[in-house]
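REVIEWER CHECKLIST
Item 1: Sequence provided? yes
Item 2: Single chain? yes
Item 3: Sequence as submitted:
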Amino acid sequence: MERLRQLQLQCRRLLPSEAGRGWYTPPVAFPPKTPSGPSDIPAHKFSGKRRTVIARHGPYHSEYHAITKGYQGNGIRTTKYTLINFIPMNLFEQFHRVANLYFLFLVVLNWVPVVEAFQKEITMIPLLVVLTVIAFKDALEDYRRYRYDKKINRLVAKVYSG
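Item 4: Structure as written out by the authors:
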């Protein structure tokens, strides 16, 4: 409940009190190009439902940091896993395959003493080998994606205006 209250307060701080309700707020006028200081810029010019884009360098440098604090970066991320969620997500995806579920069923069934056909450890070997090989393959693919994403995100972009 407190988390919801904090979120409401943050939203109220972002929206001006005179802002209209609805899905669209008309664009606001641009501030003058050369203000005498940061206090000359009205707060309502940089809030609302539309995102205001300000150049990093120039007269609005301090406002840039204040406004963009809550925004995420525009880096590309195509990786499927992180270091924290690799094992659970990979096992979850692998057990969606019918063959892996079948081998898991045989392993569980072999642990029941009445139905035991082989030694318990021997029935686990094929499943563990398959899971390990596929996990290693997925980790390698994801690491390649991570390296490629870093390479793409470090490229210099050109912005044309006109």
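Item 5: Key structural point noted by reviewer: Confidence is low (pLDDT under 50) at residues 19-23.
Item 6: Recommendation: ____
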